[in-house]
Design brief:
Order of helices and strands: EHEEEEHEEEHHHHEHEHEHEEEHEEHEHH
CATH class of one domain: Alpha Beta
CATH superfamily of one domain: NAD(P)-binding Rossmann-like Domain
Helix content: 25-40%
EC number: 5.4.99.9
Family: Belongs to the UDP-galactopyranose/dTDP-fucopyranose mutase family.
CATH topology of one domain: Rossmann fold
Keywords: FAD, Flavoprotein, Isomerase
Number of helices: 13
GO molecular function, one term: flavin adenine dinucleotide binding
Distance between the termini: 31 Å
CATH architecture of one domain: 3-Layer(aba) Sandwich
Cofactor: FAD
Strand order of the largest sheet: 8-7-13-14-15-12-16
Number of strands: 17
Radius of gyration: 22 Å
Strand content: 15-25%
Amino acid sequence: MYDYLIIGSGFAGSVLAERLASQLNKKVLIIDKRNHIGGNAYDHYDEAGILVHKYGPHIFHTNSKDVFNYLSRFTEWRPYEHHVLASVDGQLVPIPINLNTINMLYGANFTSEDVTGFLESKAEKRHPVLTSEDVVLNVVGKELYEKFFKGYTQKQWDLDPSELDASVTARVPTRINKDNRYFTDKYQAMPLHGYTKMFENMLAHPNIHIMLNTDFRDVKEHIAYKKIIYTGPIDGFFDYRYGKLPYRSIEFDFQTIDKENYQPTGTVNYPNSNAYTRITEFKFLTGQQHHKTSIVFEYPVAEGDPYYPIPRKENHALYNKYKALADSLDNIYFTGRLGTYKYYNMDQVVAQSLALFKKIQQETSQLNGVGKHTDKVAAGQERA
């Protein structure tokens, strides 16, 4: 008899498994359809002996001291600040757009004050700001929008930015300083020995058992458990009763090149004519020394593993119908990016899982204290 059956061994499932096992002495079984732990953060050494991320680059960054300290129990860190260049007008220029970007594109020597006025002269003010197109035009205007955002967004989502929620392009700020870093979070680092090693340490507790290459549907009637934590697609759990929630997927083309480096930085974005959106070179991320290098091209596609929930009003309304079903069930928690249909970063999933654990801990304490079962379903809304 397991106390918890957890579906999925990515950040959401693994953090909760570790907390339940180590803090509450619960017996946990993790089930995953894939042949490895770690979810989309899984990394491994390719045939050339280069550490690569199987499901595209995962760059860890957070402003949460609690999240960083928690993960530090399971890994040492390699300090790493990610830099991204965009191929625009025959040049490789920094993205997010900053003072250096503008000066390189226009052959100028603007100061921060100059570039503020320049961008204000270009901006097309939108009220209210509702879509991804509105966000960018409101700040940088049509020319820079078309150079950096329109083509990339259309490839990534197969939708015009005017059809997407404002949150998509709002993730990429515009700066008036010379900070070329992609992220500005307080904590920026990569697991020193890789993500998979971190997950192995996280799941090493004797109370945690793992079944890989296993579909939940095939075994749920044959395993004794008290409660479920479900981190897979919420619509799939309910057999797509109201239809499928839309996702974007990616096809990855990995290549190993017989030279030290392929490009000047970790990731180069291609916002215009190329079919791929970006190329990532893993040695920048991992710090590995090797006489060859491995890169990955990313091609967004409609079908495949569900990576990116598509942020549109109608999709959120459909999710809410599934959430209502989830809220009506006892002894099951839906969490993670797929369980709550939200585009979370890794640190946000960890924070969500730590918050859900605290809720479960309180419920357990109440149950032990008064002898009554007072579970209420959490549908993942406990984001820290």
